[in-house]
Write a structure and sequence with these properties.
2 domains, alpha/beta, 7 strands, Rossmann fold, 272 residues
């Protein structure tokens, strides 16, 4: 049994959207299913799923865990080779892999997706929920369009107006906050286009789908934005607008054998 834990705020809970999207794909998640939280951070969503009776494990590149009991450590793992996002589990271990606000931090998508495909069962699915480049208020820094415009002067302008991250350390000047966000945006935020996401995911997965409508419907009771978006979803292009200016929900399934993509005009024989 897991240690008792406070319930996450409704707008941060992931069970409803993950289970709903999985069901939409024909994948029923039960207490016997094995789930992996890719980029689990503090482990809060692993606890959320485990408290609901799901066999859930977490993996991350660093040690950010906030364990609620020393025994809980058996549910978590760190990448054994962070350079290639090595996931320390056996092949075909999981029925479902999910992540939230993780993919935008990946520097190298190809090895991460390859590892996910390796540890996912043949009939399993991946569900990745993440903010987008052109979000009006960037998720991590709370700077308007901070995912798209990444210059120090731009960040400095907004921090002097009082814009900063919710977890910003106290005592720093506006300029210091701006420099911190600027450096973070260059090294730890890598927003890919829809075309790029399809390209990399398509190397390893037969189906690459986007299901923002299902996500919005599942979150309508928890979020004002989702409630408004749900009402507007029947309008033409609404799902596309949500996908480009708020959140992407990428769902991966099926199996593609890895085929390296060589530069134009270059063949493997040239490396010999």
């Amino acid at each position: 049994m897991t240690a008792s834990a406070p319930t996450l705020p409704l707008n941060q809970q992931m069970i409803a959207p993950v289970v709903r999207i999985a069901a939409r794909c024909g994948k029923v998640i039960t207490g016997d299913s094995k789930l992996l939280d890719f980029g689990c951070g503090t482990g809060r969503h692993v606890y959320e799923f485990r408290n609901a009776g799901y066999q859930t494990f977490g993996v991350d590149l660093g040690d950010y865990l906030r364990l609620r009991s020393p025994d809980d450590k058996r549910w978590f793992a760190r990448s054994t080779d962070p350079d290639v996002y090595r996931i320390p589990f056996q092949d075909e271990s999981f029925d479902l892999i999910y992540s939230t606000q993780v993919l935008e931090h990946l520097r190298y998508y190809e090895p991460a997706l390859k590892e996910m495909r390796r540890v996912l069962k043949r009939d399993g699915i991946c569900i990745h929920i993440f903010p987008v480049k052109w979000r009006p208020l960037e998720t991590h820094f709370r700077i308007p369009f901070g995912g798209a415009i990444k210059t120090f002067s731009y960040f400095n302008f907004w921090t002097h107006l009082g814009f900063k991250a919710p977890d910003a350390p106290p005592g720093l000047s506006a300029k210091a906050h701006a420099r911190r966000y600027w450096e973070e945006s260059r090294t730890n935020l890598h927003y890919l286009s829809l075309r790029e996401l399809k390209f990399f995911a398509g190397m390893f997965f037969e189906k690459v789908e986007f299901m923002e409508r299902e996500f919005v419907e599942a979150m309508a009771d928890a979020s004002t934005i989702s409630r408004i978006a749900k009402t507007l979803m029947p309008l033409p292009l609404m799902e596309t607008l949500y996908r480009h200016f708020h959140t992407k929900v990428m769902v991966l399934s099926g199996y593609n054998f890895y085929r390296p993509v060589w530069p134009i005009g270059w063949t493997p024989e040239q490396a010999l």
